[in-house]
Specification:
With 388 residues, this protein is α/β, with parallel strands linked by helices. The protein is built from 11 helices and 16 strands. It has a 10-stranded mixed β-sheet with strand order 14-13-12-11-7-10-9-8-15-16, with helices on one face. Strand 5, helix 5 and strand 6 form a beta-alpha-beta unit. Helix 9 packs across helix 11. The longest helix is centred in the C-terminal third of the chain and has 20 residues.
């Protein structure tokens, strides 16, 4: 496999993290896999990835400044994309057209237009395995919730809630800036800008792009997709059709993106979801699905079904424990291994493009709503969004 996007050591460096864990998973015997090619626009970070994977695997790993040269190889089965989100769609589409299976980090794309383009490309290449990197899907409690909802155990699912909230003293995504990184010397800044077009070099953007509106939707795309995706998948209530969102700058006023958000989402099959996000307070909402006849509590490791009072005469509360992940394997490892398994079996992967596209409707419309102060609608028939 190949990996596109390694990242700086001063940041979470998702690409490098994927390299570390995939090499370790192979060492531990969980999968027979080799990372043979890596691409990154920054020379020192590319070299770091190549050195690590070569040493850990005992093979020669090739590095590329241009991801298209990586995709042109004839020995790859799949490619993992961990670049900033404005590059996700172009790279994933190019990989699909090369006949490669694709794992793309979350959010699936920067905006809805990109999401629909990528969705069309996946549908046009149905033989390829596609997965979006939303690893919470691997938690068994969501699969149990999906099963219970589908068989009518809670009646009509009418209202759900979830959140992703965390806190920091100085502000979110304030990763260290590497002053040794210089455009046209050891980083191809023009290539980094890519589909966004040329912009003046700003180190703050390169290392802290999640804080800037032009490059990221902030909390909504970077954090909320984790908790929203498994609920959208489990509920199976169709496309989001109306989104209203509020965003505030309450503590981290220097960040362009919001540090507090609240979304209300309506779905085509009759369901409302409330989603809260914060980088200024870590106390979130309990993960909960309310049905007409019973409720599902998903805040812990288990899925707990509690009947509504008026339907509780002949029904008892039930707890469905989740089996733990194998030793040494977390949810993100499970998601990686699931993609690799699907590459072998050619099964459809969890984190499919349609679920991810529905989540991107929420991300895009919520972002528009926060910046405009208006609600937005989405028509599943025409795949078009409009101001409400």
């Amino acid at each position: 496999m190949g990996v596109i996007g390694i990242g700086a050591p001063s940041t979470p460096a998702m690409g490098f993290g994927h390299c570390q864990r995939i090499c370790q998973l192979a060492k531990d015997g969980h999968e027979k896999v080799e990372i043979v090619a890596i691409a990154d626009v920054a020379k020192p970070y590319l070299a770091r990835g190549v050195e690590h994977c070569s040493k850990e695997q005992g093979i020669g790993v090739q590095g590329y400044a241009d991801y298209r040269e990586l995709l042109a190889r004839n020995d790859l089965h799949g490619v993992l994309i961990a670049t900033p989100e404005h590059w996700h769609a172009p790279m994933a589409i190019d990989a699909l057209q090369q006949g490669l299976d694709v794992y793309v980090e979350k959010p699936m794309t920067y905006d809805l237009d990109d999401a629909l383009l990528l969705r069309a490309a996946v549908h046009a290449n149905p033989e390829q395995v596609f997965q979006c990197g939303t690893q919470f899907l691997q938690h068994a409690k969501y699969a149990k919730a999906k099963e219970l909802i589908a068989k009518g155990a809670i009646g009509k699912p009418v209202f759900s809630q979830t959140s992703y909230c965390r806190n920091s003293k100085d502000g979110e995504w304030l990763y260290g800036i590497d002053k040794d990184l210089v455009p046209d010397v050891n980083v191809d800044w023009r290539a980094w800008c890519g589909p966004k077009g040329w912009h003046e070099w700003k180190p703050e953007v390169f290392f802290r792009w999640r804080r800037f509106r032009k490059w990221s939707s902030g909390i909504v795309g970077d954090l909320l997709v984790h908790v929203t995706t498994p609920l959208v998948w489990a509920l199976d209530v169709g496309w989001p059709v109306r989104v209203v969102a509020n965003g505030g700058h309450y503590v981290d006023k220097a960040m362009e993106n919001h540090d507090q958000v609240l979304l209300t989402v309506e779905f085509e099959k009759g369901h409302t979801m409330i989603i809260a996000g914060s980088t200024s307070n870590e106390t979130g909402l309990e993960i909960l699905v309310r049905g007409h006849e019973a409720n599902l509590y998903l805040g812990g490791d288990a899925c707990v079904l509690r009947p509504e009072r008026i339907f509780g005469e002949n029904r008892e509360e039930e707890t469905f424990p989740s089996a733990p992940f194998p030793a040494g394997v977390g949810d993100q490892d499970a998601h990686r291994l699931h993609w690799m398994k699907c590459i072998r079996t050619r099964e459809k992967a969890l984190g499919d493009v349609d679920t991810a596209a529905k989540v991107m409707v929420i991300v895009d419309l919520a972002t528009r709503s926060m910046w405009s102060g208006r609600g937005y609608t989405f028509d599943p028939a025409t795949l078009r969004a409009e101001r409400a």
